[in-house]
Amino acid sequence: MTKKLISVGLISVGLGIVGLRIGEAALFAQKVANPVIVIETNKGNIEIELQPKMAPKGVAKILGLVEKGFYRGLRVHRVTSSLVQMGDPQTRNMRNEGSWGTGGSGQYLGVAEINPMMKHVRGAVGLAYSGDPKFADSQFYIMKNASQGLDGDYSIIGRVVNGITVADRLQKADVIKNITIKPPASKSPAARD
Q1: Residue 130: its pLDDT value, please?
Q2: Given the DSSP bridges, would you call strands 156-162 and 83-86 parallel, antiparallel or unpaired?
Q3: What is the pLDDT of residues 123-172, one digit of tens each?
Q4: Angle, vertex CA 103, rays to CA 62 and CA 22, nearest 5
C-alpha cells in the first residue's frame, strides 16, 4: 500500500447543524476523556472512541465537523483491503465520482499530530491528507487490517470500539447517513430509602 491511497485535496462546502448544538463539541470533549462518535451507514453503525490526548487538534476538528452535520449524506470514496475512507463532500454528487477523494471542508488542521505510540492496527482511525500531515482536513479512514507501512506518517485520532465488521462490509459509494456524538453514559442516581 502506498501513501497515495490516503491522499485528499481541497474544496469548501456549506454546513448544516445536527447532534450537539454549535459550540458544544469542544465543551463536550473537555468533559469526556474519550468522546465516542457514531457513524450511521446504510450497512449499520460504527462507533469510534476518539483519543484527544494523542491528537487534540485532530479530534477537535472532527468533532467540530460532526456537530455541524458536515458528514451527513456523504459516501465512502475509497476501499482497499486494508482501509475504508470517507469525508469528501464531493461524494454527495454521483456524477462527480472522478473527483472523489480530493475534497474537504476547506480548513486544514495546520499541525502534524503524529504519535509514534499510535499504530495502524485493525480498527485504528486516522486522518487523511495530501502531501503534508498539516493538510489533514475532513477525510478520515478506518483500518480493516493492520498496515505498519502507514505508522509514523499519519495521525491516529481514535479506534473503532463497536462495528468493525460494518467497516469490513462497506463498499465505495455506500452512504454515511450521519455521524453523531454519542452522549456519555449517565450514572443512575443513588437509591434512596
Answers
A1: 84
A2: unpaired
A3: 999 999 988 899 999 999 999 999 999 999 999 999 999 999 999 999 99
A4: 35
Q: Which residue from 6, 9, 5 is spatially nearest to 108, judged by alpha carbons?
A: 9
The ranges assigned to domains in the chain are 20-180
Hey, which residues does 85 pair with through a beta bridge? 78, 141
Spatial separation of the C-alpha atoms in residues 42 and 24, rounded to whole Å:
27
**What is the CATH code for 20-180?**
2.40.100.10
Chain segment 38-58, per-residue pLDDT in tens: 999 999 999 999 999 999 999
In this structure, are residues 123 and 46 in contact, taking their beta carbons and an 8 Å threshold?
no
Q: Is the dihedral of CA 126, 74, 13, 97 positive or negative?
A: positive
Helix (H, G, I), strand (E, B) or coil at 98: helix
Q: pTM of the predicted model, to two decimals?
A: 0.82
